[in-house]
Design goal:
The complex is a heterodimer of chains A (225) and B (81). With 225 residues, chain A is α/β, with parallel strands linked by helices. Helices cover 23% and strands 26% of the residues of chain A. In chain B, 26% of the residues lie in helices and 28% in strands. Classes of the chains: A alpha/beta (225), B alpha+beta (81).
């Protein structure tokens, strides 16, 4: 299968994301000014500081030419994974529910966090067991997930929360410990921690690889790549 | 002929505003007493030919309506213009 990893001005984690994808398939970088998704089977919107985080995090990237194609692709059922700034971009683009607010500490935090798999068996978590803990690094200033009460209720009722911070690990103040959330259709998923930085024993954990492997499994089963 | 506007953007009521809280805690530390309900928002100034577009601009880009409220005010012309 082939992943496409977006690169905006200010993106900084696209190479790690590409390397993570390449452990389970092929991966190409897609430039923000292009519109062609090059026939990829899944899109990764990686971390960084797209367009300098000007105005609000993710607010400007959402209008990049490539994002028009990504929105169209997502609406057609294509698989999209947003990591950190990518999660923020997908929320701003209306592809994922909620918004990311500044960490309650107002500090940039960089640390390994434990996540609990809330829902296994999805396109993004089919290699995981429900309740399994994943150790994945997080590094951000604006990662406090928030949704107004009615929206939050709907997200929970639909089972859209795939990952939560383990008890005591919610360092950014996210509502209901939400670490990663998908859209109603289940084909778009975003999370603040960085699975692409947890794919090699050298850096302490390979738990992040499970998310990429899940996508590859799904695509392999449904597209026959 | 453009008119200058100010868009005031503030966190929606009830939304956690850690910046406002930090400022609220910092002021008494400097000896300023009796300060409460501090909220930190954003000010956007712009010259606009057709003000009818302003609400749309706010909804689509200047503001995230999920977490922010806004107010559009007429302003004095930009000093450079």
């Amino acid at each position: 299968m082939k992943f496409g990893v977006l690169r905006f001005p200010g993106t900084c984690d696209e190479v790690d994301a590409q390397l993570a994808c390449e452990r389970v398939g092929e991966a190409v970088i897609l430039w923000h000014g292009d519109r062609d998704l090059q026939g990829v089977d899944a899109v990764v919107v990686p971390g960084g500081f797209s367009y300098g985080d000007y105005l609000r995090v993710g607010a400007i990237a959402r209008f990049a030419p490539i994002m028009e194609s990504v929105v169209e692709y997502a609406h057609a059922g294509g698989i999209v994974l947003g990591i950190c700034n990518g999660f923020q971009v997908l929320c701003e683009a209306g592809l994922l529910p909620g918004a990311l607010l500044p960490n309650t500490s107002l500090r940039f935090v960089c640390r390994q966090v434990d996540l609990v798999v809330e829902r296994a068996g999805t396109r993004f978590t089919n290699t995981c067991a429900e309740g399994e803990r994943l150790s994945i690094p997080a590094k951000h200033t604006t990662g406090c997930w928030y949704a107004p009460p009615a929206l939050h209720e709907r997200v929970e009722a639909n089972g859209q929360v795939l990952l939560r911070y383990a008890p005591g690990e919610n360092f950014n103040g996210s509502l209901a410990d939400v670490a990663g959330v998908c859209n109603e259709a289940g084909n778009v998923f975003g999370l603040m921690p960085h699975p692409e930085h947890a794919v090699d024993p050298l850096t302490g954990s390979v738990d992040g690889l499970k998310l990429f492997q899940s996508i590859a499994n799904h695509v392999g089963a449904h597209v026959g790549a | 002929m453009s008119q200058r506007y100010r868009v005031l953007v503030r966190p929606k009521a009830g939304i956690l505003d850690p910046q406002g809280q930090a400022v609220e805690r910092a002021l008494p530390a400097l000896g300023f007493k009796g300060v409460e309900n501090v909220h930190v928002g954003r000010l956007i100034e712009l010259d606009v030919a057709d003000a009818a577009h302003l609400p749309d601009m706010c909804q689509k880009l200047l503001v995230n309506p999920l977490i922010e409220d806004y107010e559009i005010l007429e302003a004095e012309p930009h000093p450079a213009s």
